[in-house]
Amino acid sequence: MGLISNGTTLLDAGSLDGGVATGDMILIKTLAASNSSALSFVHGTSSVVLDGTYKEYLFKYINIHPTEVAQLVINFRDGGSNFDATKTSTAYNPYHVEDDTAAGLIYREAWDLAQSTGDQIIAQELGAAADESGSGYLHLFNPADTTFVTHFMGHTAYYQQLGGGGPFGVIYAGYCNTTTAIDGVTFKMSAGNLSTGTIKLYGIK
Amino acid sequence: MAVISNGTTLADAGAMSGLGSLTLIKTLTASSSGTLSFVHGSASVVLDSTYPVYLFKFLNVHAATDTANFTFNGSIDSGSNYNVHKTSSYFYASHEEGGSNGQVSYNTNNDLAQGTGFQIINEECANDGDASGSGEMYLFSPSSTTFLKHFIGRANNYHRANITNDNNFSGYFNTTSAIDAIQFKFSSGNIGSGIIKLYGIKDS
Lengths: 205, 204
Prior knowledge:
The complex is a heterodimer. Chain A is built from no helices and 15 strands. Chain A has an 8-stranded antiparallel beta sheet with strand order 4-15-6-11-12-13-8-9, with no helix packed on it. In chain A, strands 5-14-7-10 form a 4-stranded antiparallel beta sheet, with no helix packed on it. In chain A, strands 1-2-3 form a 3-stranded antiparallel beta sheet, with no helix packed on it. Chain B is mostly beta strands. Chain B has a single domain, classed as Jelly Rolls.
């Protein structure tokens, strides 16, 4: 049975009619970690859309909890099967330890990249105790474009286990220095696995 | 006929409610454009009390002229003038492709103190073929006639010297008049190409 209001079909055959306005931030895919070596979003795989359908994509990573203290990292795929796009990036770090003995904001040269194909750090020494995790967001702009470099920017809030322990942040941004389309993004730990956590991919119309 | 469940209207007048809070209002595409302007009531732009928060997205904004700054300003007279007093802050992180000069710094050259000039979003943009900037800016309650109007933005830019810049700016339009238009432009030359989108964010 369809649902028709004011002459407009809203629901029919188990789904919304294509003409119904649904909002312009569209959930594309949710991946949940379960002792996973990586969570990867690849266009055309497992219903993932990461192409010219949207001009902007937004990842939300929620309570990422590692199997051991390590770095949470990301990387981008630019056509091949490997996540190894060349990147130049910035990274800085607000921090405050729980015993209140240290707090500040510092640029982290060890966490940025200069024309590197390596992984971008988005959480350093992410805590692995039972209640420790990290959450944040990553914007990826116009990844299918083949004229310009592809910009990204993100912010992670997390519990850093070392250095006194407490709330830390990594505020990072940069560009994949390629005019090849970016068609995949991977999240993983520098050592060990993603024990639990959720990563959601949205398209912004 | 409306569909009402537990006192909540789910569907009425040919539309469903509650299916998403981010609403695309307008997309402008630059093509060697001097400016891109969003004026309430013009060309289907909504920039009034319909939404409590507005969000602009800048996608691959490309400068026609090397070293120009990408900027914005607001209007209280439907775009006749873009010269609202603003006080703002500006900091950035930068890093050269060669690996040097990684830093995060406050930039006093790019903030405003009751200035009526345009607020810098991206400084010294490269006009190389693959260079551009992308980011976003929130504008809060622009139609308020009680409070000043806050904005918060962040954009990543390909700087003229092969540098990535993570630019962060925020501040307020220091007026109790409604802001009813926003204009984007480069400090010199045209917007060679790029897209700017305006969204409204619902509060209910």
